[in-house]
Write a structure and sequence with these properties.
The protein is mostly helical.
């Protein structure tokens, strides 16, 4: 009987740890995504020569120094 309680307590502890870690990881992922999105949009705009927000075309003048 004691073994069942220990096993149950262990499984509950593992489940709490798993779901707690998953929640924290999800929050960190959202934060990282919010921080990297402006850089990704800027990179895409520069590579394509078109603003991804308003579709305005622009040319980059690459002058060799």
């Amino acid at each position: 009987m004691e073994f069942k309680y220990i096993l149950l307590l262990t499984l509950i502890s593992l489940a709490i740890g798993y779901f707690g870690g998953r929640y924290v990881g999800y929050k960190e992922g959202l934060k990282e995504g919010r921080n990297s999105t402006p850089l990704a949009l800027r990179k895409e705009s520069l590579e394509e020569g078109v603003c991804v927000l308003c579709n305005e075309k622009f040319e980059l003048d690459a002058k060799d120094s």
